Amino acid sequence: MSYELAPLGQAFLGKGSFSQVYKATEISTAKFVALKKSRASKKLQRTLLQYEARLLQLLQGHRSIPFVYAYGHLHFEYLAMELLGPSLADKQQENCTMDLSPRDDLESLAYIALYLLRGSLPWKPRPRLEDQIQSHEIVRLLKLGCSAEELSSEFPPEFCDLLTNSRSLKFGQLPDYTRIRDTFADLAKRKGFPITGPLDWRTHPGPTYTSVDEPEVSVSDEDMPGDDEDSNSSFKNSYFAWDIDQWDDRQGERDKDLTLPENQITPKQFGSILPITEVLDKSI
After folding, report:
1. Which of 159, 216, 261, 266 is the most buried (most CB within 10 A)?
2. 2-85+231-280: what fold?
3. Is the pLDDT of residue 93 over 60?
4. CATH number attached to the domain at 92-191
């Protein structure tokens, strides 16, 4: 599979702790994709993007999981996946190009909670090819036209109060977090949900996968670039890239308790995930 990045100024979408994400086109089909790029020595047997590709493949079928198209480890490693829309944290003030404040975070929390309860929101998803400016305006109008009562009519009133409260706050005004926590703690008790159990970011006793030691990695002279290598493209050669300083310490250690067995991560298991053979960047 061959991909070409979007024009300069339109390609970069964001970055995380170990990769950068770009908008790209699959050359043979002209399909837009999200292309993740990470620097990893070819001596590494199980890189982060390879691991992510396999995990996403195991989770395929859920509507919240993007479809994975292709993976390749050239000089950089790449992961091509479904290009999704903006974050669920679209807020009315953000759509109106106003500064954001704590009230907007609370409103965003209310939207996320309602999305989990309803399975959808009136403004999600937007058509993939819709003009971005037009899309923002439509989302803004839809949010303004949806009352808290309409969005939460089939659910406990606490969710309606959460959204109503967030919309009533003034710019810079802090929400009454204690009251909100107490309100939902009471709701959990009434519904019979435990409120003292471990949260999802805390250690929870239970079965774990067998840990697999990562091989030691050393870079020899053979892995260093020669004088005849092209030094102009940051998508071909990670040693002479203009963004070389952004790739330090990207392949960190993974918690062994959260690591799948080696026989579940090898590229032989990829199946429908095609190999990436070329990435073109004509913007630099």
Report:
1. 159
2. Phosphorylase Kinase; domain 1 (3.30.200)
3. no
4. 1.10.510.10
